[in-house]
Design goal:
The model has no long low-confidence stretch (mean pLDDT 83). This protein is mainly alpha-helical. A hairpin with a 6-residue loop joins strand 1 and strand 2. The chain has a three-stranded antiparallel β-sheet with strand order 2-1-3, covered by helices on one side.
Length: 99
């Protein structure tokens, strides 16, 4: 019974309406900080927008050799309400961490 309740909590917490209220913001940048982007849960400011803006940044700034996008957030696998996001948007979690 306890396992069933736990599984229900995990599944429900990953639904978009619930995740909207408990989701985190994620930040990205290049090495020298000349490009910075903050993603917000459940908005158009998502990871795809970060990638698009970074590609535009590289086109507009060909002299800037800091052309690798880094994530500024640590992975937190204990946050079970983030699991669907980690699965669905796995590319952002594969980015190298920049401290």
């Amino acid at each position: 019974m306890a396992l069933t309740i736990l599984l229900v909590i995990i599944v429900v917490s990953n639904f978009p309406p619930i995740y909207y209220f408990i989701g985190e913001s994620y930040s990205y940048q290049n090495k020298d900080g000349s490009f910075v982007f903050t993603e917000q849960s459940s908005t158009i400011q998502n990871f795809e927008m970060a990638e698009l803006r970074f590609e535009n940044f590289k086109i507009r700034n060909p002299q800037n050799h800091n052309d690798i996008l880094f994530r500024k957030f640590k992975l937190k696998p204990w946050k079970f309400w983030e699991w669907w996001n980690m699965f669905k948007n796995s590319e952002k979690y594969k980015l190298q961490y920049f401290n």
